[in-house]
Amino acid sequence: MPVILAIESSCDETSVAVCNNGKITANVIANQTIHENYGGVIPELASRVHQQNIVPAVQQALAIAKVNKNELNAVAFTRGPGLLGALLVGVSFAKSFALALDLPLIAVNHMQAHILAHFIDEPTPKFPFLCLTVSGGHTQIVLVKDYFDMEIVGETLDDAAGEAFDKTAKILSLPYPGGPLIDKYAQQGNPLAFKFPEPQIQGLNYSFSGFKTAILYFIRDRQKENPQFIEQNLADICASVQYSIVNILLNKLKKAAKQYDIKEIAIAGGVSANSGLRNALTEMKESLGWNVYIPAFQYCTDNAGMIAIAGYQKFLVGEFVGQDISPMARMNF
Question: Subcellular location, in the record's words (predicted)?
Answer without folding.
Answer: Cytoplasm
